[in-house]
Design goal:
5 domains; 816 residues; elongated; alpha+beta; 44 strands
């Protein structure tokens, strides 16, 4: 066959007026998939001429297997053998489906119920039609331009004027069609044709073509992120191909693992191609070898100095070090969330840094600048004193939906000794007595209750063995037996035993019972208010009202006795519809919307604990199936950003969903000239996962250090528990390709933090999290134990020495 025949076929296709007219009516940009051949330059030249004359933008990429064998285009039959070198497929976004234009079958196609039947070839069964470009004969028996997009379960024709037809009896003259028995949606089919080397070259070419296609976008990226952005494009190009068979083929020969090349896609593909070229040359000419490597002067050098494995690895490490600091002994960083408890305990910040925390996180949704300033001051002082680096990350609250504040409960504290099943006291309650303003008890003391007394004279007269008596909030007479005495910063503190349940409130009078009369009276002060909450059970109704006292007063008559909470965000009331699900407190409680109004939402509880579940203030609200339009940065976020810029190293951006949110952030940062403030994008929604690559590319326009947090709390509720494992793997892969450090967050070692005992699943979760650059722990009673445990796990994961207990097993293997 002469090599000019494919070019003649191609020229005839491009010269067809209806081809150009169809494209001009329907396509803004065209993607071309070309088979590898020796006449590729001529093919691209013809396409370039067509592109220039018709003002189209082309992207060239390879294809190995075509679904058709007989050339035909708009009823014009081309004589002579047909080869894949002449195949051209064009694709564009049309009705959310791809438009494919190629050499088709010379046949009349009958569309019926989403199936096509080929009249001439008399197929035994109908094949599903993926897409078609066709002409329908009108009343004058003249072809009318039509572009159709078909799925396996529908028949749909969209004409030039946009009208739809579902008439299964219409005859269609096939201009181009793509038949697929397995419903493939893209034209890059890596079939069985071609050897392993050709397939790998095609993938390499496709990745570079994708980079060229996105050249204008890459030029906008800051030079710090330029190579990382290009590698992200290469990764996305690889992900767009069906390369499962290629992965298996490469793995079977032990050459390349496509699952692990994300940080250096082009370099790995180039290395694989070069090795296959060398092997091919060695097999053809075994004599031409230099130091064991084939000397093939004619082979193409696929290496690219911009994307070497070493450079990509260094870039990823550099991005991590700039954002969160270089790791100690190459271990994953530990981040700890702190709040007002860090101020109440003078040594808390010192303890967590000493134990292993390298980053302190402050959530701007809680507290105020005075609290944040004190936390940051203590962190910096203790970091310098311990000579350990500790950075500050502050999360902006974002547009997160939360339950509103509840009326504070009474200032009462319960003292409760531990009792047996029959009510006998097993252990008395441990009560710490200290002067007002003394701070928390010593670290080695673990009281059940802390009481502060306003009289130093009263405390100075106390001795071990004395009995302190009082009347509790119910009028019951109770007593405390002083068991131990400790020096504290402002005087002395005492540990006392209480053997009966008591309720102590602010103002409770304490006195030492002497032989004759009361002496040395003191008063209890600063008892915190009890936690406010409502308890919800399955089947209960819950009313959500706007956070306005007037509206609440107007709505109280509608459902008397029904539990109520408030939510200040108008997004909630504007977005939900009856029948949609709603979740509270990170999915601990679920319900379904029963009714809505301007100021109220009625929810029926569908999931809660067997004995009911508490719902308190400042708890999350999620509406995963509602169409809600958040604003990128709230007015509070913009105000808090000024404080963050002055005091923190990194800012966390909550609930980012798309590139527009990043544009708003970029404008605010550029306005304040914040070029060095680290940025962490918190991925918490379905849209955030879906749009992560484009958000990263948008953020890479800034010079700021960049990171991503997998915020698994809201993410699991929004996307579904069963999807969480796949989603976090997807985020890790994308960020790995973009050389962006990842923070593994939410419920890490949660049982250990709250109860002091971890679950086995939590330990393995930490093992998975070691692939991230940082693991985050939330606050809790046993946070120090959790930090120490996490630090130990991370240390052990980096150990390369053979353990003594398995050394003899390793040695015994040498005998076989």
């Amino acid at each position: 066959m002469r090599s000019s025949q494919p070019l003649e076929v191609l020229r005839n296709v491009l010269d067809c007026p209806l081809f150009a007219e169809t494209l001009s009516c329907r396509c803004r940009s065209v993607q071309l998939h070309l088979a590898q051949s020796s006449i590729m330059p001529q093919i691209i030249w013809h396409l370039s001429v067509f592109s220039a004359s018709h003002k189209f933008h082309f992207l060239f990429s390879p294809i190995f297997e075509l679904p058709v064998n007989t050339p035909s285009f708009w009823g014009q039959n081309f004589q002579g053998p047909y080869t894949t070198e002449a195949a051209v497929l064009a694709s564009s976004n049309l009705h959310d489906k791809s438009l494919y234009i190629s050499c088709g079958l010379d046949a009349k196609i009958l569309v019926s119920g989403g199936k096509i039947v080929q009249a001439q070839r008399r197929l035994k069964r109908a094949l599903p039609l993926t897409s078609i470009v066709s002409a329908i004969r009108n009343g004058n028996d003249e072809p009318e331009r039509t572009v159709g997009a078909y799925a396996a379960d529908q028949s749909l024709i969209t004409s030039k004027n946009g009208r739809k037809s579902n008439d299964p009896a219409k005859e269609i003259v096939a201009s181009s069609l793509y038949l697929s028995e397995d419903h493939l949606q893209n034209a890059q089919v890596l079939g069985n044709q071609g050897n392993l080397l050709d397939k790998l070259k095609a993938v390499h070419m496709h990745a570079l073509a994708m980079e060229q296609w996105n050249a204008s976008r890459l030029k906008l990226c800051h030079r710090r992120h330029a190579t990382s952005a290009a590698n992200l494009i290469h990764y996305l190009a690889l992900r767009s191909l069906d390369v499962d068979q290629l992965k298996d083929d490469l793995s079977s020969v032990g050459l390349l693992n496509l699952e692990t090349i994300n940080p250096y896609v082009i370099a790995s593909l180039s290395a694989g191609i070069q090795m296959l070229e060398n092997l091919k040359s060695s097999s053809l000419d075994g004599d031409e070898r230099v130091d064991g490597i084939a000397n093939d002067k004619s082979s193409k050098n696929y290496s690219n100095s911009k994307f070497t494995i070493g450079m990509m690895t260094n870039r990823a490490n550099s991005n991590r070090d700039i954002l969160i600091g270089p790791p100690q002994d190459e271990r994953t960083h530990i981040m700890v969330t702190v709040g007002e408890e860090a101020i109440a305990n003078e040594t808390f910040i010192n303890d967590i840094i000493k134990t292993g925390a390298t980053i302190i996180r402050i959530n701007c949704a809680h507290g105020d600048p005075s609290v944040w300033s004190e936390i940051i001051r203590r962190a910096k002082v203790n970091s310098q004193m311990l000579e350990k680096s500790c950075r500050i990350l502050m999360d902006l609250a974002g547009p997160k939906l939360r339950t509103g504040r509840m009326k504070a409960g009474p200032c009462v504290m319960k003292i409760s000794p531990k009792k047996s099943a029959i009510g006998n006291v097993i252990n008395s309650a441990q009560v710490w007595l200290a002067p007002e303003g003394a701070g928390p008890p010593p670290a080695h003391v673990s009281p059940d209750v802390v009481l502060y007394v306003d009289s130093k004279e009263f405390l100075t007269k106390l001795e071990v063995g004395d009995t302190v008596r009082f009347s509790d909030a119910r009028g019951k007479q109770r007593s405390l037996m002083i068991s131990k005495k400790f020096p504290v910063f402002t005087g002395v503190g005492f540990m006392a035993d209480c053997t009966k349940t008591a309720y102590v409130q602010t103002g409770t009078e304490l006195y030492i019972k002497g032989n004759k009369k009361k002496s040395s009276i003191g008063f209890v002060v600063d008892v915190p208010p009890t936690e406010s909450f409502i308890r919800l059970k399955v089947g209960d109704l819950l009313v959500i009202t706007r956070d306005s006292s007037n509206e609440q007063q107007q709505s109280t008559s509608s459902m008397v006795g029904t539990p109520r909470i408030t939510c200040s965000s108008g997004y909630l009331f504007d977005s939900v519809k009856p029948g949609e699900p709603i979740a509270f407190d990170d999915g601990k409680i679920w319900g379904v919307i029963k009714g809505t109004s301007i100021s109220e939402i009625v929810v029926s509880i569908t999931y809660a604990g067997p004995r009911g579940t508490k719902l308190g203030p400042e708890k999350s609200i999620n509406i995963p199936e509602s169409k809600i339009q958040y604003e990128g940065l709230t007015s509070k976020d913009i105000m808090d950003l000024d404080f963050v810029a002055t005091n923190a190293d990194i800012v966390g951006i909550s609930f980012v969903r798309d590139a527009h949110d990043i544009v708003v952030l970029r404008q605010e940062l550029e306005k304040r000239k914040l070029k060095h403030l680290g940025i962490v994008l918190k991925i918490e929604t379905k849209d955030g996962v879906k749009n992560l690559p484009i958000m990263l590319l948008e953020a890479m326009k800034l010079p700021n250090p960049l990171g991503v947090m997998i915020a698994r709390g809201d993410l699991a509720v929004e996307c579904g528990w069963e999807m969480m494992a796949d989603i976090q793997e997807q985020i890790l892969s994308i960020c790995n390709a973009a050389h962006v450090p990842v923070i593994w967050a939410t419920q890490v070692l949660e049982s250990l933090v709250k109860t002091g005992v971890p679950t086995r699943a939590e330990i393995t979760d930490v093992a998975c999290g070691r692939r991230a650059s940082c693991i985050m722990l939330n606050k809790g009673k046993h946070i120090l134990e959790a930090i120490a445990t996490l630090d130990t796990i991370l240390k052990n994961s980096r150990s390369t020495k053979v353990k003594p207990e398995v050394r003899h097993l390793v040695l015994s293997n040498h005998l076989f």
